[in-house]
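Q: My labmate handed me this sequence with no annotations at all. I'd like to see what the chain might look like in three dimensions before we decide whether it's worth expressing. Could you predict it?
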Amino acid sequence: MALETGSKAPDFELLSDAGETVKLSDFRGKYAVLYFYPKDMTPGCTTEACDFRDQHKSFEELDAVIIGISPDPEESHQKFKSKHDLPFLLLADQDHQAAEAYGVWKLKKNFGKEYMGIERSTFIIDKEGNLLKEWRKVKVSGHVEEALQFIKEQQ
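A: Here is what I predict for the chain of 155 residues:
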C-alpha cells in the first residue's frame, strides 16, 4: 500500500532508546520528522544522524521533533545516541512493523547478495498526523537542510 501525501500517517508503537513505548500519535500538535535508516554506527547513518543533531535546535524552533527509526535494538540505539550526542529519539523497529507500514522495508542488493532492509527515507508528518512530504532513497548529503527548508515553508 502506497502512502499518499495528505493522508493519515500510519501510527506505530515502538520502544525508544530509553526503553519507553512511543507512538507517533504522541506527537500530535508538532511536526514529526521521521527518518528511517538502515543501521546504527555505519558511516552513512552516522553522518545523517549527526546532520540532524547539528540542526536539532532549528527543527525545535519550528515546532518539529526528529525521530530516527531503524531495526536495531534499543541497546544499540543507546550506544549510538551516547557516542554521537544525539538529542532526539531513536526507535527500535526490530520486527520492521513501522518500516513496512511506511513502505521502506525493501529487497536490497549489496556485493551481489540480496537481503531485506531499510531504504533510507524521511517523512514529514503535520501537526494533525497527516503525511506532508516524503523522501525515498535519500542521499545523505544536503538532505537534512532540505527537510528543514520544507518545514520552514510550511510556517
